[in-house]
Amino acid sequence: MRVTAVILAALTLTGCGTVQTVARSDQTSVDYLKDKKTYCGAVPRIYSGVAFDFCQLNAQLGDGVDAFNHSNAPLGVLIDAAASGVLDTLLLPYTVYRQQADGSIVIN
User: Fold this and answer.
1) Whole-model pTM?
2) pLDDT, mean of residues 22-28
């Protein structure tokens, strides 16, 4: 049971916006958001997971998908944004340092 919980937590965190922006390279985050065709120009490092999730919400809909049938994806992103908000708060000292040292993650 314990191993299953750890595996489930690991799989859940790999899609987390905070993990995408803090633990992975900047280029990986940029490539992911470009593939989603987001309208965001940059993601600040402070609360980057929440900003990353909202950039996903501010993206073009896929081919053949209308706004009315696209209702489940935003719910998942909003749940992830809440979890990212908690992780971003815990990582705030590190992300403030990275924002000062490296600046925002520029997408365009």
Assistant:
1) 0.78
2) 91
